[in-house]
Hints:
By secondary structure, the protein is an alpha/beta fold. Helices cover 20% and strands 22% of the residues.
Amino acid sequence: MMNKIQNKGFKRSDTPTPDKLCEFIFNLLKDENIHTILDPACGDCRLTSRFNCNKINYDIKLDQDFLEETELIECDLVILNPPFNKTTTDKKHRFMPEVFLDKIVELVPKSAGIMMITPMGFRLNQTSRSKRIKKIKNKYPQITSIITLPIDCFENTMFHTEILCFNLPWLKPHYVYP
């Protein structure tokens, strides 16, 4: 296992989702009646490419910034691997999974399922007074499943990561990938 100093330079800002993990996600969801999927940080669209349904994709590389969207988005499912961190022009450090989930909750139907690849720190290592723990309890949809990922799941990146599933009650409570 690499420590923070050794990992310096190995953690990319744009880390594609491994194809085998995309296949795993597809196999979990393929039998569900999904009409429209939103991927607000689609990259090369590999998370949704296997699905035969309508897809709504955003990515800043495509000059489509989901975080600037103001219109409601009709979808059954949101699947995303957002960037994990970003320093803005005003030098503020933003934890992007939280920023993306806030925007998703604002724009998509409350009944939509959400599958978000995120650092484990999204839900862990919170204090009782942290804003995020309050959002997890009161603002965000119910976490219905967690998918544990190995630390070396992403190529050339060593990072504690998991998939949080919200509003997907037909999934088992816990999976371990691979």
